[in-house]
Amino acid sequence: MSDSNEDDSALPTGVERRQFGGESRLVTRGEPVYGEPTDGDWRCWDARRSKLAAMLEHEMDTGLQGDETVLYLGAASGTTVSHVADFSGATYAVEFAPRPTRDLLDVAESRDNLFPLLKDARKPATYAHVVESNVDVVVQDVATRGQARVACENRQFLKDGGRLLLAIKARSEDVASDPEAVFDHARESLKEEFEIVETRRLEPFHTDHLGIVAVPR
Ligand code: SAM
Prior knowledge:
Layout: E1 15-20, E2 23-29, E3 38-39, E4 42-45, H1 51-57, E5 70-73, H2 79-87, E6 91-95, H3 98-109, E7 114-118, E8 135-140, H4 147-153, E9 158-169, H5 170-173, H6 179-190, E10 194-201, E11 209-216
Parallel strand pairs: 5-6, 5-8, 6-7, 8-9
Antiparallel strand pairs: 1-2, 2-4, 3-4, 9-11, 10-11
Helix pairs in contact: 4-6
């Protein structure tokens, strides 16, 4: 791996773009989690395994600077949220399936700013007493029906001027519909609570996914 960074001015502090095995890769610094390539403290952040990394690869206007407080919805076993915790402040990770949450607890062992919560993101009242209000960023990747509604229900945690970084998986809403129709509907539903800053399809990293950056109204 090269010691010199490439142009990473659009990346949050703590995320770099480095030559790794002859390829330019995003990296964060932390304990490895999912068998990702490492060099010293640096670990590759694979955009094919992470919608947020795909949004950064596409240079979307995430507004991430590093050190933000984050509410992450749909943490699974911690692939993406482990990287987020590497460059953020307090990171609350909501996941409703017990099995991946057990893995997530292991990931949190080496990250004292990562707080796994076995909770349903459709029921924010069940974790409102734990998650601080006024987080800087909500990241959402739940890949389940009603993705825009989940985002709207969790708007209460986001400070004014904060950002929603959302991945919408078309097939999770309706396998039969045209993805563009699903995305139009999601954008429309979000307008209740958010103003959309930018949207972008996440190909070639994720098929039929839309990345959305939005700010609360
Ligand atoms: N974001 C993860 C990553 O990049 O490492 C992958 C997330 S996976 C696509 C979607 C996850 O959301 C699954 O683990 C699923 O159990 C979880 N999920 C779906 N609906 C949820 C809900 N209502 N509340 C909490 N988690 C949910």
